[in-house]
């Protein structure tokens, strides 16, 4: 293998049966070159504004990639061995980036069967032209070749942005963000290509140690101190309008549960005051956070921001990792979620409102057929986001289609949404999604349940049209008007 | 596509791999023409007695079909836009049925990948001979052709009953039903072809606003007022015997949970009296309903009626839809169910009794391998019903077989059971089930785990024999005597 | 079929698509003849020490096999009809073993699609050279042929042990076991081939009727009465060291939940004293058992025993069966398990410790992708055991790989672990596992996601290397040193 040049097979991740593969190939051919719509990213807008370079291979591929670091940690490395900076403790962080890269390359076999393997192959081969498989023997040569590329203008972020054919990319921004980077991007003519997303989790969970500082920062951004729950709501609304003005399409909410029960204003105020002055118990914090989801939906009806919700993760499962490395360092473990009962208050209030759009994500696959598809197949406001996090994988995406489509169809889903911090992996992820959807659609064609024309149209919608329309700000941009939608809009008057 | 005549492929929904397809085709050939056994229907017996015509295409295909209306609602239509009559509110109901049909045809793409698409294709092409795919362009022509057919005697219900080769069809009947339609059908010689099913949910949940009226009606049917819990039990028993006399095979129970904990008689009486005189809280109502499942099982041991249970649906998730259109209008959303603990009281009391038969349905697929297959693979009274509701779909049925068979085998399942209000879809649903089972069995043959002869025999059992024997009233009709059964029966003396 | 000799197809259980089958065949060829590593068995060590014969066909194949008896019971037989000895009640146990065999053979069709069918075909055809399929017609002839074989030296346990190529087999032993059989086996030179496993469930659940006797026996083995919680911990630790000295690799824990919350010593002492003197409620017992898992992990860090946990079974679901036949007689029904929250205390304390190894099993498949793969893909101490119990089946094993690999990879799993009481089924189970893994890996090769060389290496690891290394006692035997491991070990100094 190492002797032959390492070229990715053009049919990778397509079905193996020759008849199916042939159909899938035709479908994929119609989506492979479509622009990328990336509505849920975690790229720093400043990096794009400055047109940053990506540093060395460890800085690009390993240190910031949770998926990759996590796997090596699961086999005995410490985060610090891989260059992840500890917040406290005496573990010396590894500073030899070539050694970090070598540790990865030597352990290439650990990634067999994982999406990380697929993405890395795509990045190394397609993006960087590497012709050798990573291994102990090839680690240094690959490192050198990558380093050489990374020092050229062709591998700065804007050049890759163009080469990847990214039409629009959303960033993730705290409510107190001044949005200055986005304003600067707009001045540079990039305002339509890079848009902010309003992510208020930091001020929704009053039991987090960072909550008071986050509320203070929110108030400071609005030019006043926040001393009441109503003042808090006012500040959020004000910032949401600022985000809308800066081009935002959506808000984003990562919660422990799907609870959306509104609180009486007095109860919300009581918890808010308690949190301002001291500790809040977890149950009160969870109740407050659920109330804030309800309030966020209410605000979305007003300002048209699409609401994204991805609940069900017990963050920082390992106290030692959290203490050593800070929050969200690879030890976030999913839990079961009750969407049916959790979302009922919110959907009862806003679920039928044509001004509202809710996009749901999960890592608990048990809700796909039991809860999410029935909910999205009934409430006109709801769309199902793409398979999230660990499920953004070949089999994970195939299961999503299989478990959701029969009840919700294709058109109650959002199309593909990547959720990555790893810029260079964006085209790999979209490419994989297009291949998996082509395989799923090929099966429907092969079973004579769809024509090839229908399958091709659907594939294009999933890859391109649906993400654009699902994330179109309600009332602002009109989603591609279908007869159904036109009816609904006029019916809602 | 529109230019060519629209003919369904004979191999639709069979496996795509040529070797597998060839085996599946052989298996399917042995079941395709078998009579239909439809033990869980929702057709009005009066419609059969009167030999009704079906009205216009919107009245046959759209307005009464929850699956279909729900999908259009999920994309922005209101129920009333599709001819569904609101109970209250000012939404004017659409009365132009041609327009309703057009709304459906224009949105044909929404149904891609859904069972509704498969069923509709079958109904339009096979049952009605339509040669065009629905679309905005073809809507009117198809409407006219369907209307012309529907006005002929060949498309009245009894002619279709014969043409569909329905051997037996169960209806669903309230406990206070006078069963007059069934008596009239019996007079017409249709008593063996159309049988009632005893469905007492309406009197089991004392927190429903309709509960007191339902109990009053039950008493009235028995010629006395029901003033006590014991009187309630007596009335139920009396009506069950009336149902048995009218040919009933089974009872049917749709509950929120699988709880079957019996109450002390005094506790049941207390809740019953409270409900007669005023409101009952949800916890008491759920306890009462669970107790009534236990009591129903006890009665089944006596009268031999097969007990069907399908729990796990939060009905009327949207208060606005319930208030506007009444109960069960497309916004029933499933929840997780604990069968293992819920059924334990009932199974401890009756689960080993050869006079008892319990058929379990679920929309919570997580229990297939974890709970249902182990329960059915141990308790001789239990059979697993076919995939229910949203799961009555190609992939849903395939997952059922895959998740259940290895632990419970084929012979602890009920064979195919449709659950439809849409009469014209009955043959489509049975046909699809036979194709999916043929595909599943073909794989076992292809993997050399079954011979083709065994697979064919199994397919026939799943399509025809098992539904007949699973729904044979215990003690009345003897299920096809197997050595095991004969042993068990004599052992139970 | 009955006319032709009954020969198993060499490609059974491999993928059906010709291209996939061809790749799978190549991969399987590299694992088919590997030695068997059986780290979780339930064979009596005395039977091996004495080199027992297996009795008659009913005694070998039917009476002790829960899977098989259970299926016949689910269709109406009583346990006693199949030779299972009732503990009480008046059901006469069937003593005619030829008749018992005939009952099984006549009901061969019930096992279609089940792993029991696959294993039995393998045992009858490959191990015993039977050339007829079981049926009413062939039952007696097969019985006679099996009986004849079973009376020869070639079918005694040690001859089969050699013929099956079992390299190492773990037994399951109570903490009060004197380990005399293992000592005798060591004297015979079999000490490395048959090792004990420490299974303390009997003394961990103080609400079991057998608990006091089990604690008494544990004390007696240590030569003293256990009168305090600390004395109890001391005795456990003492016995664990005795097991280590006898060659044990692991402990084994079957619990109702995954709760691992430690108790304050005073609380544990209080429950312990209460249990010594009288009944303990279920909640206290569960709290005590959870505490003991935590304590067991702590002890594992000291003595290096690998900790196995398989939670989530409601044992003895049927009171009648438990009363009639004793515990664990086929009516153990799984329930949902929360591993994420349950394991958090244990993993926070020991999950990052390189001296600790935890292998997790489940019958609740919903946790594969949601909880187990993320946990094993992060904590270096955790490996995922093979699909357990009902899931030790073709589709069950395929789902495990599909749902786990993308997040945890192959190398955070334990490789294949059988869990059988049926000695003759051991090679059938390992063979099936190797075929299923070959099929899974063939798909990755077919999708151009792995090379054939990588797939073959992975298959060998799953079948042979990983079970050996996953069950290597920590600190004692060094697992095959990977660079990652070496780093981790030195980093942990």
In terms of topology, how is this protein built?
3 copies of one chain form a homotrimer.
Chain A: H1 18-29, E1 36-38, H2 45-50, H3 57-62, H4 66-74, H5 97-106, H6 115-127, H7 139-150, H8 157-163, E2 166-170, H9 180-187, E3 194-195, E4 197-198, H10 201-204, H11 211-222, H12 229-245, E5 250-253, H13 265-277, H14 282-303, E6 306-309, E7 313-314, H15 319-325, E8 333-334, H16 339-342, H17 344-350, E9 358-360, H18 367-376, E10 382-384, H19 394-408, H20 426-446, H21 452-470, H22 483-491
Parallel strand pairs in A: 1-2, 2-3, 4-5, 5-6, 6-9, 9-10
Antiparallel strand pairs in A: 7-8
Describe the structure.
- Three copies of one chain form a homotrimer.
- The first copy, chain A, is globular and about 70 Å long.
- Mean pLDDT of chain A is 94; it is low at 477-493.
- Chain A has two domains: 53-154, Orthogonal Bundle (uronate isomerase, domain 2, chain A), CATH 1.10.2020; 158-491, TIM Barrel.
- In chain A, 57% of the residues are buried.
- Chain A is α/β, with parallel strands linked by helices.
- The N and C termini of chain A lie far apart (65 Å).
- The first copy, chain A, contains 22 helices and ten strands.
- In chain A, α18 links the parallel β9 and β10 (382-384).
- Chain A has a five-stranded parallel beta sheet with strand order 4-5-6-9-10. A three-stranded parallel beta sheet of chain A has the order 1-2-3. In chain A, strands 7-8 form a two-stranded antiparallel sheet.
- The longest helix of chain A has 22 residues, at 282-303.
- Chains in contact: A-B, A-C, B-C.
- At the A-C interface, α4, α6, α15, β8 and α19 of A face α17, α18, α19, α20 and α21 of C.
- Chains A, B, C: Its EC number is 5.3.1.12.
- Chains A, B, C: InterPro entries: Metal_Hydrolase, Uronate_isomerase.
- Chains A, B, C: Pathway: Carbohydrate metabolism; pentose and glucuronate interconversion.
